[in-house]
Design brief:
This protein is an alpha/beta fold and 395 residues long. The chain folds into two domains: 19-352, HIV Type 1 Reverse Transcriptase, subunit A, domain 1 (HIV Type 1 Reverse Transcriptase, Chain A, domain 1); 353-395, no CATH class. It has helices at residues 77-88, 129-144, 193-197, 222-227, 249-262, 303-319, 355-358, 369-378, 386-394; strands at 37-39, 68-69, 94-95, 109-110, 148-150, 157-163, 170-174, 205-210, 219-220, 230-232, 235-239, 288-291, 294-299, 323-324, 329-332, 334-337, 340-343, 346-349. Strands 1, 5, 6, 7, 10 and 11 form a six-stranded mixed beta sheet that branches. A five-stranded mixed beta sheet has the order 2-15-8-13-12, covered by helices on one side. Strands 16-17-18 form a three-stranded antiparallel beta sheet, with no helix packed on it. It starts with 36 loop residues before the first strand and ends with a helix.
């Protein structure tokens, strides 16, 4: 992983207008490729949040009552309040609903090395007229929070617009598939979900935390910005933060998170932005598992989550990692984690994921089969005689 460098250099395009002054006009004479857009629930990029701009962060938006904390029947109000105060001590790390793009994390930067490969420039794709205004607003939002800049890059990847389930709002994704064959695969072991879920039933209390904004907390080098460029009907743009869909981004983020939570490395003293001991070696937090932005702390008594939560939040403070308060649960006897319900009696399927198995939108084509098998494999432990049924589908 590259050490973090100063990425606040001047944008590629000089004298860029403010987002409110932009004139994103539709070029009707441009040569477009065929239109590509999907409805949410499509297999493309289901996991990520895509391009969704947010307003400026305000700590006043987070209140103590937003901390979702329960405890088991054995906890007294005083014990529950003790954990709440441990969390509230680090309230500057909590992001409430509607809050913004967090500041960049420390100690890591995304770089993309394509060797001597020639730039790939693809045509802009057509966009239905009913989506043009929505895309304009989304791009303006990304520009306003400095997620993207105008670009003069020789690289250009096309966009895919995802229509959300409400049928009104959209998400923006970049189709990097043609480019993804160029960089070398980063060798870093990603955790296996089945391994992370093992032995969790041996504990009684859980804290399930969601890291805010995912990949967007990681800055990019200048050459990575150029390679991340995407073409729209309104012009060419490049990402300032690590984009979803780029090759090696899961490995980069997971390695950063492992370094922060398990104390493998320390942040250089040159990056000490405060007096919190950033340069000190980290300490491993016990009984903790993480998969990209999802973190789970398990415990057998009330003192353990109090101590472990404080250790986790201290690590997040050092690495400048923020937590979504509306998606995090503290000291619970039962939580959601990696698509499962986790509690002392074992694992359960998440009700939100069951309809994809009981009523799948499966076309029956060979091309759709891998996706269908992937969904079945995820919950295979809950399907009796799954190996028999799956063998027929594989054949």
């Amino acid at each position: 992983m590259s050490q973090k460098t100063d990425m606040d250099s001047s944008p590629v395009v000089e004298d860029q207008p403010g987002a409110s002054d932009l004139d994103l006009t539709w070029d009707s004479d441009q040569d477009y490729d065929e239109c590509v857009y999907c409805h949410e629930g499509n297999d493309l990029c289901r996991r990520s949040d895509g391009g969704t701009a947010r307003s400026a962060r305000d700590e006043k938006d987070v209140k103590t009552e937003y901390i979702q904390l329960c405890g088991s029947d054995n906890q007294t109000p005083e014990e529950i309040d003790r954990l709440r105060q441990r969390v509230w001590k680090f309230r500057h790390l909590l992001i409430g609903k509607g809050n913004a793009l967090p500041p960049a994390t420390r100690g890591v930067v995304c770089d993309i090395d394509v060797g001597g490969a020639s730039p790939i420039t693809m045509k802009c794709r057509k966009l239905p007229i009913q989506l043009r205004e929505k895309l304009t607003d989304l791009i303006k939002g990304l520009l306003s929070v400095k997620m993207i800049n105008y670009s003069r890059s020789p690289w250009a990847s096309p966009i895919v617009v995802i229509i959300k389930k409400n049928g009104v709002d959209i998400r923006l994704f970049i189709d990097y598939r043609l480019f993804s064959s160029l960089p070398q695969l980063m060798i870093y072991s990603m955790p296996l979900i089945n391994d992370l879920l093992e032995d969790l039933e041996s504990t009684f209390l859980y804290c399930s935390l969601d890291m805010e904004s995912g990949f967007w907390v990681v800055k990019m080098t200048d050459r990575a910005r150029l390679i991340s460029s995407f073409i729209t009907p309104f012009g060419l743009f490049e990402w300032n933060r690590m984009s979803f869909g780029l090759k090696n981004t899961p490995q980069i983020y997971q390695r950063m998170l492992d370094n922060a939570l398990y104390g493998f490395t320390r942040i250089p003293k040159s990056e000490d932005h405060g007096k919190r001991g950033i340069g000190k070696s980290g300490q491993t937090i016990s009984d903790l598992t993480s998969y990209i932005g999802a973190i789970l702390i398990s415990a057998n008594n009330w003192d353990q989550p109090c101590d472990r939560v404080e250790g986790l939040l201290e690590a997040c403070d050092k690495w400048n990692l923020l937590i979504s308060v509306v998606k995090s649960f503290w000291g619970m006897p039962k939580v959601e984690y990696l698509g499962h319900k986790v509690f002392h009696n074992g694992l359960e399927t998440n009700p939100k994921g069951v309809p994809t198995l009981t009523d799948p939108a499966f076309s029956g084509s060979l091309r759709a089969m891998p996706s269908m098998l992937g969904r079945l494999n995820y919950y295979s432990r809950f399907i009796e005689d799954y190996a028999i049924y799956a063998s027929v589908l594989y054949e």
